[in-house]
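Re: weekly structure request thread

Next one in the queue (211 aa):
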Amino acid sequence: MQESSTNPARRGRPPRSAEEVDANRARIVAAARDLFAAEGYDGVSMRKVAARANCLPSTLYTLFPNKRQLLHHLWEGIFADLVAAMEQSHATSAPAERLTALCLTNIDFWLERPEDYRAIFLVEDRVQDSDAPYFVENVLALRLVAILQDAVVEAQQRGEIGPGDPEAVRDALLCGIQGVAYNLIAIPEFRWGDPERLKRTTVEALVRGLR
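Done, posted below.
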């Protein structure tokens, strides 16, 4: 009588589905954002993130080999949303109002997402070796500044603002709008008054000063 062969039962956990991997990644990124925003870079460990995300450290390290990669993944997601908002603003605003609209869009984005702001601008980007790039060299960060610089060049060509180095003008605008976002988010106890009036007054003053 011929013996029937049977396959041995597979041991261990079955492989995770793509949906499970995506859900784990989203939960980890959300936990990391909250921790980085509250405790800064040094206050966050991979074990803290795993505990907050309710996952095994091994699962976390499989998706993100180290803390800086996790941080940059978080930043990339936020900047992708910001770039999309800026591109939409650029496409829908009237040419004469485009520079002002882009500045206000940038401020509004951060005011609507204060924890994202804290997780980016209140956390230092720590380079771990001399060959590793800073996040400011990321394609999304470069795209963001390019959108604003293009609007500066367009405004100069139309004679709406004076001539000058477009990069210097762009940087001055970035410093101004970042200042509004920072003060409203990080120093809420000060009596800033109506946020809508503050941001519009600041942006309009910046743009008028460029004329």
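The mean pLDDT is 90. The two ends are 98 Å apart (CA to CA).
Next request, please.
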